[in-house]
Amino acid sequence: MTIALTVFQGRAGDHNDLAIPGAMAIANCLGDMLGIAPCTVGQPARALSAGWRTELDSALPALRELQRRFESIFSAGERPLSATSRCAVSLATLPIVGRYRPDACVVWFDAHADLNTPVSTGSGYLGGLALSGPAGLWQSGLGAGIALSSIVLVGQRDLDAFEVELIASGAVRHVPPGPGLAARLADAIAGRPVYVHLDCDVLEPGIVPTDYVHANGLGLDDLRDACVAIARGEVIGVEIAEFQDAWHAGGPPVSPAPLLRAVAPLVERMQRPGHPGPASAAGDSFLGIAGPG
């Protein structure tokens, strides 16, 4: 089955100007590895670092273009692999996933749950509303269609009160960092097809450059083990967000290759949807390597 590679280059609630080139670095690296050219959606623009309403209004034209791109991908029977710069881009992607694959669960790797609403948010940050919009907890103008019961949160360790209540109520599943994460994740997925969102701040600080840093995150081996567990079943799509191309503005570029080696089992599974390999070998042929080192 064909993989459709996309890179989002518009504004999406950016605090700085590092994630847009970071997304392009990921897309170019994936394109070189897979031998396919990424489709670019949106045009780079300087960060506004404004409240959620201003940021959403600015982002809507490019986000609607991305929705049209996802519509064409799913209509053609392809699988989306995307570098999405910021988590807020999921306001556009997930409603299309929900429309075409209501049987799937969304595995949300992130230090945060991003399930706040315009009413519950304390920061007013658009990215903190990225998952709640597709879940129908507020009206973004981009649609909904993801049931709370279809969400599996993974790696969260900075949760707001509203999000803690959602988890405590059993409305969403939460797989916190710690021993046995891959097995606990497999239990939460329960054999369902999976669409993966990866925010790089799910990782321990210092592994890759990202806007937010929170201690006690996943290592690359933890992430790869989780991806191997997911790859035992159907992977319908992957989006990678919040990778910055440098540790600071003007700094030397940072390669996304170690990160992409960790998620290789997912890409390998997307390439061979009808032929799942042994979990220990999943992803070994992608990049011609066997691990994230």
From TrEMBL:
One Pfam family, short name: Arginase
GO molecular function: arginase activity; manganese ion binding
Transmembrane intervals: none
InterPro entries registered for this protein in UniProt: Ureohydrolase, Ureohydrolase_dom_sf
Protein's UniProt keywords contain Repressor: no
Family: Belongs to the arginase family.
Protein source organism: Pseudoduganella albidiflava
Key words of the record: Hydrolase, Manganese, Metal-binding
Keyword Calcium listed: no
Protein name, per record: Arginase
Source organism phylogeny: Bacteria, Pseudomonadati, Pseudomonadota, Betaproteobacteria, Burkholderiales
Gene Ontology CC annotation, any one: cytosol
SUPFAM superfamilies given in the database record: Arginase/deacetylase
